[in-house]
Amino acid sequence: MKTAIETHNLTVAYNRRPVLWDIDFQIPEGQLIGVLGPNGSGKTTLLKSLMGLVQPSSGYVRLFGQSLDEVRSRISYVPQRESVDWDFPISVREVAVMGRYRKHKLLGRLNKEDHRLADEALEKVGMLSFADRQIAQLSGGQQQRVFVARALAQQADLYLMDEPFAGVDAASEEAILSLLKEMKQAGKTVLIVHHDLHTAHQFFDWMVLLNTRLIKCGPTSSVFTADYLKQAYGGQLTILSQVSDLVKARDFPIRERSFKDQPK
Amino acid sequence: MSDFFTFSDPNVRLVTAGTILLGISAAIVGTFTFLRKRALVGDAIAHAILPGVCLSFMITGEKHPAYLLVGAVLAGWLSLLVMDYLSSRTKLSTDTAIGAVLSVFFGAGILLLTSIQHSGSANQAGLDQFLFGKAAAMTQRDIWVFSGVAVVLLGLVLAFFRSFKLISFDPAFAKSIGLPVRRLEFLLSTITVLAVATGIQAVGVVLMAALLITPAAAARFWTDRIQVMILLAAAFGLLSGLFGSWISYTAPSMPTGPWIVVLLSMIAVVSVVVAPKRGIWARLRLQRSNARKIRQENILKAFYGIGEAADAPVATVAVDMLRQQRPFEDIALQLGLRELVKKGLLHKHKPGSYALTPTGLQESRRVVRLHRLWELYLTERMNYAADHVHNTAEAIEHVITPEVEAALLRELDHPILDPHDAVIPYQNPSKPSAS
Ligand SMILES: Nc1ncnc2c1ncn2[C@@H]1O[C@H](COP(=O)(O)OP(=O)(O)O)[C@@H](O)[C@H]1O
Ligand SMILES: [Mg+2]
């Protein structure tokens, strides 16, 4: 198997505070890879440094054995959904077709083929019937699907997705998941930042477990063990914190009190 | 008035055309400033340009528009750099950095302006017009230069429209596909500085932010399409430029710039109030129609409840019985009853006594069904306690659409009883619909 992603002594700091520390791993092609770790463990930062969006203080990244600039057209990046303003006045189709923008066509027009590929991508995520809607009129899950469609339109070989399942409804989760399986069958490599431990071991072939430093990288069965999880999540893995995450993620009102108050 | 609009006077023609062009280019460039949430930065640039303009005059001793533009652009860039540096390299927050740059640069500009005026330079007349603008005082040469710049800006925005749209919406993605985001941002900033530098001819430094941002802000209320938004913003810029010029033509003591801004503000206020969907008026109407729906559905539910308690559809119901069923407000009850009669859901027998029509009965069953389905959903799927769900369902029952109802029915598999063991009424009472 050839290597899709490798990092060498990758260290990234914001204002001199390291959030990734000496990360060293290799991931083979054609896998579904989950990046896991608690909040603030540097998952987003890892993706951004793979994409050259943040400058590492030391170390480097290789994609398909080459530097990012040499293989950029084969890589697709799906940012965290909250990173953009969904009230922006553009339509679903306009977002999808952004996947067809190219740096050497800064001024040129998009051609028919570009529009066809964008529509095809929307069809694949089940959003073609929404193509003319403004993006603010979509649910969170639908917005996420539009982001995935934009990535599909890029026709890349390696996909880096930041939390595509966060705050997503069941239908959207299903749509994205079946798409991921399809992509894997087509030999694509997909790296996904994921926060839900319950579903993680069903989704992924390969895992990167992170908490500022690299805890473990390897096939799911060798990484997803109580021991490594404990190293990554430490004392945070209590039921209480999971519940509070759920409340936050689904925006439940907390005024209803169906549990007895827990002693501190 | 007719005098002005025939444009027979070539000078009027030229000044008006120039003012309109400046307005249009500021509005179009400003659309991106607005969408990138940089309104305050636009204001700071406008103020920061003043010292550049003054310095270029002090150095060259001339009021040639090209020199003034060079000074303006240099000062504008410098202010951008300083803002960037302050907010990224120091602990100052972004708005503090913007505020600091605005006041320091503007203060320096005023200082230079004062010293120029005291130096008694013969050529200095009109420099203070940069403060509030004076379109009518533009010379032919000024107008040609500034209009030329405005046209170039429009061309650039048109050419780079797609890229500007992307870096405004999702700069990280733009960078990930290898677009030269830094250079594009620099280009957009330069275009903004130039639009501001030319726009201050019309409205002056102090009011420039209004010329830049107000058209876009007003346009946003009318549309969800960036292309339409830009055209609308341009149209607002055009209209205000045209009528601003007209007002100062008919009443020469009236300054053009402030009038342009007043007109723009009026357009913005009208947009905020009457725009479909986003406007205050539309939102009020929506709220009123919601309130109407809620009061009608609550009355229908009371009818259903009375029938349910009597264990048989009741022929006629007196208003007092409704009040016992549910504590209605008097006015709401009277209003709701009248509306329901008008919609053909109720039938008025005699004063103070009503009966459900067949459609009214179906409608009342629907509302009760939604209420009970939602209660069941909360207890079954969300693990709420049965005695906690009633109040939530009271609100949600009015919101649930037929699609959501279908989804609920599927999810709960066409249940018979709600959490309080009351029967869930289906459309066709004898056989619960199976899908
Ligand atoms: N632009 C930034 N400037 C300063 N600190 C940042 C920035 N982005 C992220 N951080 C910090 O870096 C750490 C890692 O963040 P992130 O990579 O987003 O974590 P994750 O995605 O795993 O939640 C967090 O502590 C966060 O506060
Ligand atoms: Mg993150």
Automatic annotation (TrEMBL), chain A:
All copies of domain ABC transporter, residue ranges: 5-237
CDD domains according to UniProt: ABC_Metallic_Cations
Keyword Acyltransferase: no
Keyword tags: ATP-binding, Nucleotide-binding, Transport
InterPro entries given in the database record: AAA+_ATPase (IPR003593), ABC_transporter-like_ATP-bd (IPR003439), ABC_transporter-like_CS (IPR017871), Metal_Ion_Import_ABC (IPR050153), P-loop_NTPase (IPR027417)
GO MF term (any one): ATP binding
Family, per entry: Belongs to the ABC transporter superfamily.
PANTHER family xrefs: IRON TRANSPORT SYSTEM ATP-BINDING PROTEIN HI_0361-RELATED, METAL TRANSPORT SYSTEM ATP-BINDING PROTEIN TM_0124-RELATED
Name of the protein: Manganese ABC transporter ATP-binding protein
Automatic annotation (TrEMBL), chain B:
Membrane topology (UniProt): Multi-pass membrane protein
Localization in the cell: Cell membrane
Record's GO cellular component terms: ATP-binding cassette (ABC) transporter complex
CDD domains: TM_ABC_iron-siderophores_like
Listed GO biological process terms: cellular response to iron ion; response to zinc ion; transmembrane transport
Residues in Iron dependent repressor metal binding and dimerisation domain copies: 357-425
Membrane-spanning ranges: 12-34, 40-59, 66-86, 98-116, 143-161, 186-214, 226-247, 259-276
Pfam families, A to Z: ABC-3 (PF00950), Fe_dep_repr_C (PF02742)
Gene Ontology molecular function, alphabetical: DNA-binding transcription factor activity; protein dimerization activity; transition metal ion binding
Protein origin, superkingdom: Bacteria
Keyword vocabulary terms for this entry: Cell membrane, Membrane, Transmembrane, Transmembrane helix, Transport
Record family assignment: Belongs to the ABC-3 integral membrane protein family.
Protein name, entry field: Zinc ABC transporter permease
Organism listed in the record: Phaeodactylibacter xiamenensis
Lineage: Bacteria, Pseudomonadati, Bacteroidota, Saprospiria, Saprospirales
